[in-house]
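Is this the right way to post structure tokens for a design question? Let me know if I should format differently. Anyway, here goes:
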């Protein structure tokens, strides 16, 4: 399959003005957090990577958690809402095929050398559901499910809420499998997803 670059595969620095101090800090954090998680990256390293003074860093982000929240927000804007959803919609004409195209986008992502899995899932597992960062991650994951539910509604599928929950399991599962080394996991998930769509199509009444 030909490699077609889309916004989610570009770096944060390609999308933002790096001469802005606030942005420079987020750019530095984005690369570190997405690759290594939260606890493994210290404030001193973030300050060195962003090339700002400690006082400047804390003026923009009073705590490390504030910076992580900015990272999660940017991840959502650039990756899921800025790339995966619009890219999937652009690849097909009808909502059912647009849903399946999510896994085509994932398949492309999983082949990338810089594949770093899902930051929302990683932060949730690392920090826990009760932590403010875990709660923020769950909110972003819920936004993804909402996008799936909207497509399901457009496709006329029944019980779109349950559908979105099941669909999201396939999305998250394929990401974890890819992180384990299964670069074809999106294709496997796509086949299962086709069956899930069939299960949620309205049942046609039998003629009497």
């Amino acid at each position: 399959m030909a490699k077609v670059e889309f916004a989610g595969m570009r770096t944060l620095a390609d999308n933002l003005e790096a001469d802005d101090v606030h942005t420079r800090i987020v750019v530095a954090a984005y690369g570190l957090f997405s690759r290594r998680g939260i606890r493994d990256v210290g404030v001193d390293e973030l300050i060195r990577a962003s090339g700002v003074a400690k006082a400047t860093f804390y003026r923009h982000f009073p705590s490390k958690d504030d910076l992580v929240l900015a990272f999660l927000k940017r991840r959502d804007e650039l990756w899921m809402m800025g790339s995966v959803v619009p890219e999937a919609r652009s690849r097909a004409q009808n909502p059912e095929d647009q849903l399946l195209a999510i896994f085509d986008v994932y398949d492309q992502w999983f082949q990338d050398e810089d594949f770093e899995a899902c930051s929302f899932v990683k932060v949730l597992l690392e920090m826990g559901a009760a932590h403010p960062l875990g709660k923020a991650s769950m909110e972003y994951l819920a936004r993804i499910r909402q996008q799936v539910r909207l497509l399901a509604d457009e496709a006329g599928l029944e019980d779109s809420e349950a559908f979105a929950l099941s669909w999201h399991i396939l999305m998250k599962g394929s990401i974890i499998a890819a992180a384990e080394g299964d670069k074809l996991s999106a294709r496997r998930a796509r086949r299962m997803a086709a069956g899930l769509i069939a299960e949620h199509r309205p049942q046609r009444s039998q003629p009497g």
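Format looks fine. Someone answered above. Worth noting: Confidence is low (pLDDT under 50) at residues 1-13. The CA atoms of residues 109 and 115 lie 7 Å apart.
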